[in-house]
Amino acid sequence: MSVRTLPSFDPRDPLGLDDLLTDEDLAVRDTVRRWATDRVLPHIADWYERGELPDIRELARELGSLGALGMQLTGYGCAGASAVQYGLACLELEAADSGIRSLVSVQGSLAMYAIHRFGSEEQKRQWLPGMAAGEIIGCFGLTEPDHGSDPAGMRTHAKRDGDDWVLTGRKMWITNGSVAGVAVVWAQTDDGIRGFVVPTDRPGFSAPEIRHKWSLRASVTSELVLDEVRLPADAVLPEVTGLRGPLSCLSHARYGIVWGSMGAARASFESALDYARTREQFGKPIGGFQLTQAKLADMAVELHKGILLAHHLGRRMDAGKLRPEQVSFGKLNNVREAIEICRTARTILGANGISLEYPVMRHATNLESVLTYEGTVEMHQLVLGKALTGLDAFR
């Protein structure tokens, strides 16, 4: 009887989760990882410290050439990748920085997805190929200064004026806003909430950038101001009315966060693991002390459980079985655990944990935004609570 030799234990993949991935999955992951390592990591600390993303247009074109923009969509220049492959890309991008993953998520899972799913054929042909190539940057206007978790109360409105629409209102915390060539904006109409494809060079449209952020600093965040922006009749997304439109887009984007948050957690965990092996106190590496090993073990368990959860949800999405409540399950768990991993990693690095020479504090502060955007903790708890009990506690 032959004795089977077990594979060696990999501290960076302790559960052997790579076995779940196809060769094509691995190729997508490794391509995005190489790009992020070469193009983002050498500069990200400086960009973050300066509070800007100076190469955003060039980065968008490079991401387009990789097929990372709208990669889960089909046709119109999009890659038609699987949900798992898109998730792996999100993980690798956020392992570099949440701002880079946000650029890709807003472009592909919000702006492009809205046009792809709810737009006319003319709208798709006009916008999607340029957006997939990164030649046109898009943004998604839903959140308002006074309406975040309750988008049904939005004040932005669109009125008919002959054959035209006239759009007035404000949107807040809009990623890519001031560099976008097109904005998908949701507004109240006499027929209910509708989506509009708004070229940003229209008179009355402006997007002042939001400054003084302590999170997502390497990301363009803006306010959208719509001052009687006149649009033709065919600017409206024809295939949806009501909150079903924007909420389905958000669910698609939240799926990317389930994966992406684990990228930030992985980067912080690996930084702490490497540090624990080399930092010496009391005559030996701190990784040799029981309390440090307990921290590393707990971090590894939550990190790889989160990746396994993301993979499971991805396979369900690919099979057409993923429910919005399950996406809420993933975002609630994975972002919450990612923040805890970053905080624990910071304690292992000690004072060095607050330095931009290491990625940990940058990821921790970024995740404070990820925790509340596209659905706060409380909203996802209530989504799950309603699904579990059948009782609506939102109001």
UniProtKB/TrEMBL annotation:
Keywords assigned? FAD, Flavoprotein, Oxidoreductase, Transit peptide
Which domain of life does this protein belong to? Bacteria
Give GO terms: molecular function aspect only.
Answer: fatty-acyl-CoA binding; flavin adenine dinucleotide binding; glutaryl-CoA dehydrogenase activity
Q: Which SUPFAM superfamilies match?
A: Acyl-CoA dehydrogenase C-terminal domain-like, Acyl-CoA dehydrogenase NM domain-like
What range(s) does the Acyl-CoA oxidase/dehydrogenase middle domain occupy?
139-229
Which cofactors are named for this entry? FAD
Pfam families (UniProt xref): Acyl-CoA_dh_1 (PF00441), Acyl-CoA_dh_M (PF02770), Acyl-CoA_dh_N (PF02771)
Q: Which residues form the Acyl-CoA dehydrogenase/oxidase C-terminal domain?
A: 242-388
As recorded in UniProt, its EC number(s) are 1.3.8.6
One Gene Ontology BP term is: fatty acid beta-oxidation using acyl-CoA dehydrogenase
**Residues annotated as domain Acyl-CoA dehydrogenase/oxidase N-terminal:** 22-135
The record's family statement is:
Belongs to the acyl-CoA dehydrogenase family.
- The identity of this protein, by name, is Glutaryl-CoA dehydrogenase
